[in-house]
Amino acid sequence: MEVEQRIPGTLAASERELRKTFLDQARLVPGAERITRCLQCGTCTGSCPVSYAMDISPRMVIALFRAGEIGEILRSRTIWICASCYMCTTRCPQTIKITDLLYALKRTALEAKLYPDRFPVYLLSKNFVRLVNHYGRNQEILLLLLYYLRRNPLELLRMAPMGWSLMRKGRVSLFPAKIQGVAAIRKILAASKALELPRGEETVEYDKTMVGYRAVG
Amino acid sequence: MEYLYYPGCSLESAGKPYDESLRAVFRALGIGLTELKDWNCCGATMYMSVDETTSLAISARNLALSEQSGSRELIAPCSACYTVLLKTNRFLRDSPELKRKVDVILGGAGLKYDLTVAVRHPLDVLVNDIGIEVIARTAKRTLEGITFAPYYGCQIVRPERGFDDREFPTTMDRLFESLGAKCTYFPLKTRCCGGMLMTTFPEVCLELVKELLACAAENEAQCIATTCPLCQMNLEAYQKRVNKMFKTSYEVPVLCFTQLLGIALGCSEHELGLQRNLIALKAPLSALVA
């Protein structure tokens, strides 16, 4: 792994970029600035049902962010394993919105095109979004087909018996139907795109209370 | 009494038993349920991972349509839909910047939303609006002799405190106990089942499911009552895989809570979609519906 030359006490250029992207995403989370209050108590990690499978624990994620190492967070499996059960957020003594900030990290990773080697969540989310944009509703069968074909076709074979049981019980909708308001969905997408100003043209006022503000500049 | 109803994508396919039994229960209680016309997908957790503002706008379209139809409340049975719609309300309320953006986006589609619609879970509506007394009076069968594990899952009670405690809710417990059932000790009642992780990280998800099944089996629950179609699916459809992976032999029926409620209210097996469950009911519960 290439080590970037850094002057001690400042952030590497790549880290600054990631930080900016992350802070942009985090601004969309009301209350995100409470991340500065973290006292590293570890309650989040202790409450997380999947922390045992994470390489970086939730507590470490916050510590790494404050140490200027977002790149490392994004290269880990952690943010993709989060099941979004909100137990950490519920128990955090400082009421930090950990789950929502993890979502912001996910979006940062997708924007920066940084994912760990196997990125099943991205594959699933991307196809989900495509289906919703096209039909207005999620089509479970199509989604699973698109997802597993790309990720691991053998898994489809393995799931076939279960799929067949569900089909026999009428729990599979085979014929996707578009909703009438699909046009409205397309308009929403278009309007949303129009709002996304290219980076660099928009001048953003970073709140001085946001961690990393000084390091960004 | 009349409510506006948002089924969500899951209840049209894998969650069909939930949709059917929910409608049956409301019918039995004499309460009207009108489906929101031309609703769209709420976005679930997937869309939020890709694009937050668009995800909120897509979710808000449903709320805007509800507002248009004149309703102040929207029932969302799927826990993911429930949480996403609630989150939309909350985010738009707490962040004027987000609200402005979403207003512009919705305006592009000729819609507007003024934050007047409250999102309700059917468990909340049944116990808190209609009331346990009314339900107990309408019951045609007693659930005496039935032991169940009340599994709420995570999204129905978190992140903000809604209609019940965030870690140890009792709404479902109280509902079924008033109908004669025995609620087992079930400390994992709000522990996550893994949700969508079953598709992305199945080994992790199966471990979570195993722990839930183990807790229910240890406490001798005859069945597990769920409030979310994804939880119901994970706990029911993957028991074989859990058994294979962990050398266990679980065969616990997993019901939507509305199915169990429907049994007490006298609904038929077919009305409640019980024939669609993958694991058949066992005695004594099966005898009640026979």
Structure commentary:
- The complex is a heterodimer of chains A (217) and B (290).
- Chain A is mostly helical and 217 residues long.
- Chain A has 12 helices and no strands.
- Chain A has helices at 13-26, 43-47, 58-66, 70-74, 78-81, 87-91, 98-111, 120-135, 140-151, 153-168, 182-195, 213-216.
- In chain A, helix 8 (120-135) runs antiparallel to helix 9 and helix 9 (140-151) packs antiparallel against helix 10 (153-168).
- Chain A is globular, with a radius of gyration of 20 Å.
- In chain B, 49% of the residues lie in helices and 10% in strands.
- In chain B, helix 7 (171-177) links the parallel strand 5 (147-151) and strand 6 (182-183).
- The mean pLDDT of chain B is 93.
- The longest helix of chain B has 17 residues, at 52-68.
- Chain B folds into 2 domains: 36-120, Glutathione S-transferase Yfyf (Class Pi), Chain A, domain 2 (Up-down Bundle); 139-289, Rossmann fold (3-Layer(aba) Sandwich).
- The two termini of chain B are 31 Å apart.
- In chain B, the strands form 3 sheets. In chain B, strands 6-5-7-8 form a 4-stranded parallel beta sheet, sandwiched between helices. Chain B has a two-stranded parallel sheet with strand order 1-2.
- At the A-B interface, helix 6, helix 7, helix 8, helix 9 and helix 10 of A face helix 2, helix 3, helix 4, helix 5 and helix 8 of B.
